[in-house]
């Protein structure tokens, strides 16, 4: 726990209107032939951010990065870096470095020479290059591999060489295109924390592409969820998770139950009538919703409690039958069918040993959740 | 190892016989002691001795070698640049035309190529000679180099070049320090190919040569028309020997390199 007397400094430059963004996309469109890969996109990324681009394969994440690195020119719109238009600047003149999805290590050069490649082409004095390379080797724990060629080291080490090489020139902006895709889960988790650590130490702005939502949640200061070349939502990990702005985003990140129904306005929110004879769901919302409007209600499994009798301190209750139980070790997922056939997933922490579990298949149970547990969505 | 069926064994034998019996006869008869090229007159190496005293042959061999060296080098430079532009240049205006024109000499009959070059050189130079042969050979060997190098470039990961440029290398720097070292095997193969093509070309050299620039194939051909001299057998045997040794060294070296690489990769994975 943080000490109560010390207010932590919240890093949220995007909430400060006087803060100048490091990167500005202004109405950027990119077409390949008549295919639109990026569609009129506007986005600000700030100094020292760890910004994650998240989205299904083919939604334009790599294209966005390649425009920042200078390998693709936008068809329309402007890209500014530190307030200056960088579209006419060729890749070798940009203060931006990229870590490639395929690592793209130079196979004919040793680890040392790979890392020194960019430094030799900068205005760094010759006698300082060795020192800087050594520093990068230390940072990525590669000191003993300096003389090896890329094919003489393992996949995880290669990935660290690629990282060291792209960090060596201390770029203002570091682009990471699915940097951890090739690693197994354990190594990936380690490397995620390593990346965050490095970002903290160097103060570089990171933009990371990933299709792994957990990875984005772990490392990012903000996440942009993309689809078909458009930004659907840009927010902090908690914002994306707790307050998705659409069914698409809610569905993309984590597990979620989506219940559709007709709205009826009440004090401070709405009631959602989702089934004949079932009690309506009470939900608080700031959205301006008309009576009778069709809405979607998104609620995460861990926000729903499973019990034999209704928990009276919660506003919403529904009865149903357990049709399946998924055991995940630290928690159990209960799949419950409600009276109208609607399936709902609820998860409960396994505070007790499994042999003492209260419910089993085919049990009638009651689900309870509060009126602020779910999110009302209109798209 | 699987046993060959009798059909496969027979076709293999016949095929190899067709290819190699003439060469074997040639090699055997280069050690013939008799004067008549078709009758065995006992073992002797005297034709080798005579060959090395024959001023004309030695001269022609020296000219051929110089032409081949110059041709191979020029064709490799031009062919590599052409391949690079064709593969990496994107879709620039007139690309297909340029590509077609680069590869046309592959299918163009030698006689037509030789004749057209002869006409061109008549206009450009007052006298044909070694320079014109080199230029002609460069023209027709360049496309072979280009084919070999572009096939390597196509399979060469473009992101390496992007990484170089991302790290601050200019286009020329990227080509020299990243592309070239990685396509070097293809460039060397292209050089060797151009070298051998130039070495044994008769037709185009005949059209474009001039006084003082008689290449070995031309010399041999004109000698043979006056009857086969045993020295020519000796000379051919030496050439076969050189080529065989060259190919052997090349393949042993590349095999070793591949084995070394596999060992390295195994060790790298094991130590991970
Ligand atoms: N050079 C290109 N030419 C044509 N289409 C391209 C090119 N690069 C990317 N695309 C297309 O643009 C879309 C977005 O690609 P990309 O940015 O690589 O997606 P992501 O990285 O999100 O998976 C894809 O449909 C892809 O086929
Ligand atoms: Mg991609």
Can you give a write-up of this model?
The complex is a heterodimer of chains A (379) and B (272). Chain A folds into 2 domains: 236 residues, 3-Layer(aba) Sandwich (Rossmann fold); 123 residues, RNA polymerase II/Efflux pump adaptor protein, barrel-sandwich hybrid domain (OB fold (Dihydrolipoamide Acetyltransferase, E2P), Beta Barrel), CATH 2.40.50. Chain A is α+β, with helices and mostly antiparallel strands and 379 residues long. The longest helix of chain A is centred in the middle third of the chain and has 18 residues. In chain A, helix 5 links the parallel strand 7 and strand 8. In chain A, the strands form 4 sheets. Chain A has a 6-stranded mixed beta sheet with strand order 6-7-8-3-9-10, with helices on both faces. In chain A, strands 13-12-11-14-20 form a 5-stranded antiparallel beta sheet. Chain A has a 5-stranded antiparallel beta sheet with strand order 15-19-16-17-18, with no helix packed on it. Chain A has 8 helices and 20 strands. Chain B is mainly alpha-helical. Chain B has a domain of 173 residues: MetI-like (MetI-like fold, Orthogonal Bundle). Chain B contains 11 helices and no strands. In chain B, helix 1 packs across helix 11 and helix 6 crosses helix 8. Chain B is globular. Chains A and B meet through strand 6 and helix 4 of A and helix 7, helix 8 and helix 11 of B. Bound molecules: adenosine-5'-diphosphate and magnesium ion (MG).
CATH class of the domain at 55-227 in chain B: Mainly Alpha
What is the count of structural domains of chain A? 2
Beta-strand content bin of chain A? 25-35%
Order of helices and strands of chain A: EEEHEEEHHHEHEHEEHHEEEEEEEEEE
| Percentage beta strand of chain B | under 5%
Distance between the termini of chain B: 36 Å
H/I helix tally of chain A: 8
Work out the helicity level of chain A.
10-25%
Question: Overall mean pLDDT score of chain B?
Answer: 87
CATH superfamily of the domain at 55-227 in chain B: MetI-like
Uncertain stretches of 5 or more adjacent residues of chain B:
none
Structural class of chain A: alpha+beta
> Largest chain interface and its two residue counts?
A-B, 33 and 24 residues
Mean pLDDT of chain A: 89
Report Rg of chain A. Answer: 25 Å
Number of strands of chain A: 20
Biggest pleated-sheet summary of chain A = 6 strands, mixed
Q: Termini distance of chain A? A: 38 Å
- Fill in the CATH topology of the largest domain in chain A: Rossmann fold
In this structure, how is the largest beta sheet of chain B organized?
Answer: none
- Assign the CATH superfamily of the largest domain in chain A: P-loop containing nucleotide triphosphate hydrolases
């Amino acid at each position: 726990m943080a000490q109560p007397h010390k207010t932590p400094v919240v890093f949220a430059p995007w909430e400060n209107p006087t803060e100048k963004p490091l990167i500005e996309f202004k109405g950027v469109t990119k077409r390949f032939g008549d295919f639109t890969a990026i569609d009129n996109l506007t986005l600000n990324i700030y100094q020292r951010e760890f910004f994650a681009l998240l989205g299904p394969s083919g939604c334009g994440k790599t294209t966005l990065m390649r425009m920042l690195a200078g390998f693709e020119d936008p068809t329309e719109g402007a890209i500014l870096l530190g307030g200056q238009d960088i579209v006419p600047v060729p890749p070798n003149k940009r203060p931006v470095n990229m870590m490639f999805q395929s690592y793209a290590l130079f196979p004919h050069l040793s680890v040392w020479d790979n890392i020194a490649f960019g430094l030799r082409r900068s205005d760094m004095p010759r006698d300082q290059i060795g020192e800087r390379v050594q520093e990068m080797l230390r940072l990525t724990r590669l000191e003993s591999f300096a003389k090896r060629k890329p094919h003489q080291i393992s996949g995880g080490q290669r990935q660290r060489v690629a990282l060291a090489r792209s960090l060596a020139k201390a770029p203002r902006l570091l682009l990471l295109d699915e940097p951890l895709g090739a690693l197994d889960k354990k190594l990936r988790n380690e490397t995620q924390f390593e990346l965050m650590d490095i970002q903290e130490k160097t103060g570089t702005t990171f933009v990371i592409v990933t299709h792994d939502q957990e990875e984005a949640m772990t490392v990012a200061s903000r996440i942009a969820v993309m689809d078909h070349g458009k930004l659907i939502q840009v927010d902090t990990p908690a914002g994306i998770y707790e307050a998705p702005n659409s069914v698409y985003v809610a569905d993309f990140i984590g597990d979620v139950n989506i219940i559709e129904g007709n709205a009826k306005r009440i004090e401070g929110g709405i009631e959602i009538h989702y089934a004949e004879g079932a009690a309506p769901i009470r939900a608080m919302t700031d959205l301006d919703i008309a009576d009778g409007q069709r809405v979607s209600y998104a609620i995460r499994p861990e926000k729903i409690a499973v019990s034999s009798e209704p928990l009276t301190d919660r506003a919403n209750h529904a009865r149903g039958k357990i049709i399946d139980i998924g055991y995940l070790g630290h928690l159990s997922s209960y799949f419950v069918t409600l009276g109208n056939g609607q399936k709902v997933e609820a998860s409960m922490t396994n505070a007790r040993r499994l042999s003492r579990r209260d419910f089993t298949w085919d049990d009638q149970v009651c689900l309870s959740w509060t009126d602020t547990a779910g999110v009302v969505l209109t798209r | 190892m699987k046993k060959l069926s009798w059909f496969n064994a027979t076709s293999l034998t016949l095929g190899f016989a067709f290819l190699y019996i003439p060469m074997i006869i040639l090699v055997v008869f280069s050690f013939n002691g008799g004067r008549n090229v078709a009758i065995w007159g006992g073992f002797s190496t005297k034709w080798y001795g005579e060959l090395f005293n024959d001023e004309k042959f030695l001269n022609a061999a020296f000219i051929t070698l110089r032409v081949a060296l110059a041709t191979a080098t020029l064709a490799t430079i031009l062919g590599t640049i052409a391949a690079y532009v064709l593969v990496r240049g994107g879709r620039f205006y007139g690309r297909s035309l340029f590509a077609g024109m680069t590869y046309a000499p592959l299918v163009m009959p030698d006689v037509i190529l030789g004749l057209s070059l002869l006409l061109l050189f008549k206009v450009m130079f007052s006298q044909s000679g070694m320079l014109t042969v080199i230029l002609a050979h460069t023209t027709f060997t360049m496309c072979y180099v280009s084919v070999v190098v572009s096939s390597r470039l196509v399979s060469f990961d473009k992101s390496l070049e992007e990484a170089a440029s991302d790290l601050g290398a200019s286009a020329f720097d990227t080509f020299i320090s990243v592309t070239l070292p990685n396509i070097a095997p293809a460039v060397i193969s292209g050089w060797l190919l151009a070298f051998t093509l130039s070495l044994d070309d008769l037709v185009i050299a005949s059209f474009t040569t001039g006084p003082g620039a008689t290449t070995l194939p031309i010399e041999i051909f004109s000698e043979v028309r006056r009857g086969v001299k045993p020295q020519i057998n000796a000379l051919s045997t030496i050439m076969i020997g050189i080529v065989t040794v060259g190919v052997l060294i090349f393949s042993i070296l590349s095999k070793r390199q591949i084995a070394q690489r596999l060992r390295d990769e195994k060790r790298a994975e094991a130590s991970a």
